[in-house]
Amino acid sequence: MTIPPEKRMELLVSLCKRRGFVFPSSEIYGGLGGVYDYGHYGILLKNNIRDAWWKWMVQMREDVVGLDSAIFMHPRTWEASGHVENFDDPQIDCRKCKNRFRADHVLESYGVNADKAPLDVVNAELEKLRVEEKLVCPQCGSKDLTEAKRFSLMVKSNLGSPTSELSEEHVVYLRPETCGGIYLNYKNTVDSLHPAMPFGIAQVGKAFRNEIVARQFIFRTREFEQMELQYFIRPEETERVFDQWREDRWAWYLRFGVKPEQIRWYKHEKLAHYASQAFDVEFDFPSLGGFKEVEGIHARGNWDLTRHAQFSGQELVYVDSKTGEKFVPHIVETSVGLNRLFLMFLDQAMVEEDVGEGETRTVLKLHPELAPVKVAVFPLLRNKPELTQKARDLYLSLRERFSCEYDDNGNIGKRYRRQDEIGTPYCVCVDFDSLETNSVTVRDRDTMTQERVAIADIASWIGERIR
Ligand code: ATP
Questions:
Q1: Atom of ligand 1 nearest to the CA of 220
Q2: 337 CB near ligand 1 (under 6 Å)
Q3: Does 1 score more than 70 pLDDT?
Q4: What integer is the mean pLDDT of 271-296?
Q5: Span 12-20, mean pLDDT?
Q6: 98, 118, 152: which is the final residue of a domain?
Q7: Does the C-beta of 334 come closer than 6 Å to ligand 1?
Q8: C-alpha distances in angstroms, 234 versus 239, 241, 305?
Q9: Quick check: 68 pLDDT over 90?
């Protein structure tokens, strides 16, 4: 059944809350805009996506090492990176309904691309629409909108400050992206691990942005997690390495069940002065009604290390141990939002299916490796000790290897539905035959077909299928 986008988003949000995936932050105090908490199944899914990324980007490679740098960094970091001066979005306000919007998003709704355009260009485009009497508030339809002004996305704290004020002099930022920590640890990594060029440093962690409009559920939030790789190269390798990373990242999406027609490349035409290429991976979100960015792949030249060298006074170079050649490495970066991928996988997986007799089921057809729970074990009846004992023994042995649940609540049909809703690929049922034959039925989430498998083989049977 196809569900219209708004209805689909509503269903997704309510499923996430009802089944303990995602909760709005601080609900008992009326909520905190643009911030979300992850419940039991949410954290299991999020960890699985993170692990799938880490395995592909670090574990399976000999040329990438990991890092976990702190959220707080020396404030000069963000001066060097240009964030203090330039990391902002153009904002406009409606004087009537008092709502605030990103001016580039408003322009986009009129078919004008003002992504990362300077403020005067944004205001000129807005003025054209104003003159044509077309510009109206997206919320209330009023024409009383302000001019666009800059709104910094940097989140400030007074960490370690001698005063409780957020004064510019003492401010320490919460990082707006994780890669800053990679640049600051470039030298430590080279000095301690002596990686051969080319090599990458990967990290996963929280980032904070004072987004003007945090909406579309967890698509854009003020606190989120990024998974970033900075790959250090010789300048002449840029094109080859960039193409290779595009290929590798594309393959990752397909590996975890995204279909080729659900993703596409967006090529940035307007580039930062230091960048030579920038592509986004866009996913066709059914609940957002179209393609939206999930990941960016950028060729950043040697700008980052050069700037941090200038601002810190430290030499950030690579010395070729064979030739003695010394140079500032160039960087190809891949940067993806973990929460955005979480929404992508959920949105892609959620289906409502007719199961006959006027009944429907909601299923999360997640890739088995990403599913929060891999297998659920049921006794056919809860009041037969011989069944429950055998089912619990099986559950206790399976949970050593898999994320596993035991459920004896309600009838079997209801238990299947509950597992379908959280995306559990296999349900194992211990029935009366199990007592005679030492075998169980295994029910497949997607096809709903059942198969009889020997208890002695069940762990390897599941293991083979959830890879
Ligand atoms: P956008 O144009 O959507 O604001 P961006 O181009 O600023 O994103 P980057 O700075 O390149 O994004 O960040 C890399 C990735 O981090 C994005 O592709 C996205 O997946 C994720 N990301 C960025 N901002 C947010 C946010 N506010 N909430 C959730 N994820 C985010």
A1: 28
A2: yes
A3: no
A4: 95
A5: 97
A6: 152
A7: no
A8: 11, 10, 13
A9: yes
**Does the structure show a pLDDT above 70 at 16?**
yes
Number of domains the chain is built from? 3
Q: What is the CATH number of the domain that holds 291?
A: 3.30.930.10
The answer to the question of residue 413 being in a domain is yes
Residue 324 sits in the same domain as residue 397: no
Q: Which of 226, 227, 298 to mutate to test the pocket of ligand 1 (most atoms within 8 A of CB)?
A: 226
Q: Is residue 122 part of a domain?
A: yes
Could you give the CA distance from residue 24 to residue 32 in angstroms, rounded to a whole number? 8
Question: 429 and 285 share a domain?
Answer: no
**pLDDT-derived band at 2, boundaries 50, 70, 90:** confident
**Ligand 1, atom 22: nearest CA belongs to which residue?**
337
Q: Pick from 210, 104, 108, 211: which is nearest to 148 by CA?
A: 104
Mark whether 57 and 196 lie in a shared domain.
yes
Final residue in a domain of this structure, among 348, 382, 411: 348
pLDDT at 24: 96
pTM greater than the 0.85 cutoff: yes
110 neighbors 129 (Cβ within 8 angstroms): yes
Residue 382 Ramachandran class (φ > 0 left, ψ -120 to 50 alpha, else beta): alpha
* Whole-number pLDDT of residue 424: 98
Residues 240 and 378 in one domain: no
Query: Does a structural domain hold residue 138?
Result: yes
Task: Share the mean pLDDT of the chain.
Answer: 95
- What average pLDDT does this structure show over 258-265? 98
Work out the pLDDT band at 235, boundaries 50, 70, 90.
very high
Pocket of ligand 1 contains residue 221 by CB under 6 Å: yes
431 lines ligand 1 (CB under 6 A): no
Cα separation, 157 vs 264, whole angstroms = 38
Which pLDDT band holds residue 416 (cuts at 50, 70, 90)? Answer: very high
333 lines ligand 1 (CB under 6 A): no
Q: Which residues contact 122 (CB under 8 A, 6 or more apart)?
A: 90, 103, 104, 107, 114, 148
Whole-Å CA distances, 257 to 224, 260, 318, 441: 23, 9, 39, 26
User: 115 falls in which pLDDT band (50, 70, 90)?
Assistant: confident
> Which ligand 1 atom is the nearest neighbour of the CA of 115?
2
Clarify whether residues 60 and 192 are in a common domain: yes
Asked, for residue 298, whether it belongs to a domain, the answer is yes
Mutate to test the pocket of ligand 1, among 204, 221, 340, 343 (most ligand atoms within 8 A of CB): 340
Distance 456 CA to ligand 1 centre (A): 47
Q: Let me know whether 235 and 289 are in one domain.
A: yes
